[in-house]
Amino acid sequence: MRERQTQERPPEAARGAARPAAVELAGVTKRFEDFVAVDDLTLSIYEGEFFSLLGPSGCGKTTTLRMIAGFEDPTEGELRVAGRPMRGVPPYRRPVNTVFQSYALFPHLDVFENIAFGLRRAKVPKDEIRRRVSEACALVQLTGFERRKPARLSGGQQQRVALARALVNRPKVLLLDEPLGALDLKLRKEMQIELKNLQHELGITFVYVTHDQEEALTMSDRIAVMKDGKVQQLDTPANLYELPANRFVAGFIGQTNTFSGEVESVRGERVTLRTAGGLELEAFAPAGREVVKGSEAHVAVRPEKVRFGEAGDNAFAGEVRDVVYLGSSTQYVVELKGGERLVVYRQNAREAADSGAGDEVWVAWDAANCLVLGE
């Protein structure tokens, strides 16, 4: 079986128009002695794009960001920002600014002076400093807070100061290293919306590092999913979720049910697979993802695509083993007759859940929602 191609495509945000690259990495590798943190990475990040590097700890996403920022040099390959080669260019001479998770605010300086710090180092005239800091404060909704010290600000307000300090220098690219990680869930969700709106308003390229799948899906135009220093798939949020390239992406982006088995037949894009437990599954193989009769294959179906009942290309009897109330939905774990377990999401209505642990049920889903995965 040949893996679906994961070459990058122009983002949906471009609305069909090609845009120049703000950041380009060509064959970039970063080694720390015998450890390869980033392995032969090639990608382009477009001007005005909200681009996320997503993956588990140790996948190379933060190292990639640090190379763009100039805090690390590539061992091999070429890195360009705004069309200029960056090898040997120190961080303070690059047209980028970085916002860290810790915010790195100066505790002895007030909001105004924190934001003005880079401008003063660049010897910008005092009148222009006042004007630009005022504009930055208005942009992040901190007008009136200019004389407060960081200790008197909430976490969300401190994050806005860090953003304003980065934006006031008018970078070509803003690098964000898990900037919302220290916030509580409610504030983090609010700041996700604010960040996305701010990026749209400014039109600046954002390169965002996160391990939070929902955060990346919410904000990004495109996402590069990384593992072991390599990009597993570079795509839009919708394509990553609906058409994951392989088992890693399918399992990392949201919840999914995966089955493995032998391919019994292939009819165009329609594939029949039999699992070790004896389930006969009808699945869909996207164009470019070839499947050979008699080979082993892996398929995935999202929990929300599964229904209770017998109507569907794949319908199986099972027993409810667990029920978890999640607020807007309820999660069911159903054990099928062959021993495989299936997670099912059901949106909550006014009526109480009508299936409980120990109940015999039928579950079903369509072949179009059962995707053949690459390796």
TrEMBL record:
| Superkingdom of origin | Bacteria
Which residues does the UniProt record annotate as the domain ABC transporter? 23-253
Write down the EC number.
7.6.2.11
Cellular compartments per GO CC: ATP-binding cassette (ABC) transporter complex
Enzyme class, top EC level, equals: translocase
What is catalyzed by this enzyme? Answer: ATP + H2O + polyamine-[polyamine-binding protein]Side 1 = ADP + phosphate + polyamineSide 2 + [polyamine-binding protein]Side 1
- Which one Pfam family would you cite for this protein? ABC_tran
The alphabetical list of record keywords is: ATP-binding, Cell membrane, Membrane, Nucleotide-binding, Translocase, Transport
Q: Which residues form a coiled coil?
A: none
Molecular function per GO:
ABC-type putrescine transporter activity; ATP binding; ATP hydrolysis activity
The annotated subunit structure for this chain is: The complex is composed of two ATP-binding proteins (PotA), two transmembrane proteins (PotB and PotC) and a solute-binding protein (PotD).
Q: What is this protein's function?
A: Part of the ABC transporter complex PotABCD involved in spermidine/putrescine import. Responsible for energy coupling to the transport system.
As for family, the record states: Belongs to the ABC transporter superfamily. Spermidine/putrescine importer (TC 3.A.1.11.1) family.
Q: This protein is called what? A: Spermidine/putrescine import ATP-binding protein PotA
Gene name per UniProt: potA
